[in-house]
TrEMBL record:
It comes from Streptomyces wuyuanensis. Its EC number is 2.1.1.182. CDD domains: AdoMet_MTases (cd02440). This is Ribosomal RNA small subunit methyltransferase A. InterPro entries: KsgA/Erm, rRNA_Ade_diMease-like_C, rRNA_Ade_Mease_Trfase_CS, rRNA_Ade_methylase_Trfase_N, rRNA_adenine_dimethylase, SAM-dependent_MTases_sf. GO terms for cellular component: cytosol. It comes from the Bacteria. The lineage of its organism: Bacteria, Bacillati, Actinomycetota, Actinomycetes, Kitasatosporales. One of its GO terms (molecular function) is RNA binding. Residues 40-214 form the Ribosomal RNA adenine methylase transferase N-terminal domain.
Length: 291
């Protein structure tokens, strides 16, 4: 643990002062809600189990509240920021508040969905307060693109946290739950109140922990093939899988053949299946076809 100044982290007055100096008004369009509570960012870093040898990637650092707390604990931090003004200001904030760590910080000024590579050593952890409107696609993109990320902790809207961590049979279990589970063991890791943000959002937030599978899912189907089944199953989630997968398979009969071959009832619904079962269905596409 580095011995940084306890006042290096940003408090409510610091955040408002920085925002005023930059002419920044948090925008709904980008889902910006800045964390103004130093105890909350330290709690996030603790919950993420950030280690002194970690290379952490952070998406949407904003004014730098969480970035500074991550720099206290990790070996290095790379922040991905889309906003021009925020991206330009962040290195200055880091240099002013943690001068001894500034060489451990890198900024990527980009839309996270467009990021294909990161500077420096490969990331070992992803820790972020994700903008509510893009949380799931950004999370899945980063997990797919950077297989060296072993541990992830994201703060998202509470209902998104519920969906990501849901188990089969739960009414909010769906596409995000299955796809996140393809990569990792997923669980809720706490709740965050509204009053730690500026502006205070009108929804609660939750922490989600994702620990990457040590062994990839055992399947002969590709990720894209499995995800195609998942998307089809939940596009019409009230229908039986025989009906919901008809388009994917080519016909209801072809869907039924694939399901039977995979050992899954054609009358089942997508919300009852594990990611392993979706993978089995993908493996048996075309099962009923005669050559």
């Amino acid at each position: 643990m580095s011995t940084t100044d306890p006042d290096a982290l940003l408090g409510p007055a610091d955040i408002r002062e920085l925002a005023a100096a930059l002419g920044v008004r948090p925008t709904k369009q980008r889902g910006q809600n800045f964390v103004i509570d130093a105890n909350t960012v330290r709690r996030i870093v603790r919950t993420a189990e950030v280690r002194p040898d970690d290379v952490v990637v952070e998406v949407g650092p904003g004014l730098g509240s969480l970035t500074l707390a991550l720099l206290e604990a990790a070996d290095r931090v790379t922040a991905v920021e889309i906003d021009d003004v925020l991206a330009a200001a962040l290195p200055t904030t880091i240099a002013a508040r943690m001068p001894e760590r500034k060489d451990r910080f890198a900024l990527v000024h980009s839309d996270a969905m467009q990021v294909r590579e990161l500077p420096g050593p490969a990331p070992t952890a992803l820790v972020a307060n994700l903008p509510y409107n893009v949380a799931v696609p950004v999370l899945l993109h980063m997990l797919e693109r950077f297989p060296t990320i072993e541990r992830t902790l994201v703060m998202v809207q509470s209902e998104v946290a519920d969906r990501l961590a849901a188990r089969p049979g739960n009414k909010v279990y769906g596409v995000p739950s299955v796809k996140a589970n393809w990569y990792a063991e997923v669980k809720r890791a706490g709740a965050i109140g509204r009053n730690v943000f500026w502006p205070a959002p009108n929804v609660d937030s939750g922490l989600v922990s994702l620990v990457r599978r040590t062994e990839p899912l055992k399947t002969t189907a590709s990720r894209a093939e499995v995800f195609a089944v998942v998307d089809a199953a939940f596009a019409q989630r009230r229908k039986t899988l025989r009906a919901a997968l008809a388009g994917w398979a080519g016909s209801p009969a072809a869907a039924e053949a694939a399901l039977v071959a995979a050992g899954i009832s054609p009358q089942a619904r997508g919300e009852s299946l594990t990611v392993e079962e979706f993978a089995r269905i993908a493996e048996h596409k075309g099962a009923g076809e005669t050559t």
